[in-house]
Amino acid sequence: MSPLAHIVALPVRGYRLLFSPWVGHGCRYQPTCSAYALEALERHGALRGSWLAARRVLSCHPWGGFGYDPVPGADPEFDARRRCKDHDHA
What we know:
Belongs to the UPF0161 family. Could be involved in insertion of integral membrane proteins into the membrane. The protein has one domain. Helices cover 68% and strands 4% of the residues. It is mainly alpha-helical and 90 residues long. It has three helices and two strands. Strands 1-2 form a two-stranded parallel sheet. Strand 1, helix 2 and strand 2 form a beta-alpha-beta unit. Helix 1 crosses helix 2. It is globular and about 40 Å long.
């Protein structure tokens, strides 16, 4: 992880340490948003990783998504299926 990504990850790590135990484990997604954020920062760096994490957190509401949603590049088979599905709808 780049030095900037480490800095950006600090609030996520703080959330996981301090607030996550109190909030509960009712995440709509797998992996959880905080795990997704840390992996996105690791894989894609501070800028793109932050964008991916923010997009995920903003989709976490009753009318948003749910289920298995890995970080792009973490599951090549899932990425390929997603590309095919997106291409079919275009």
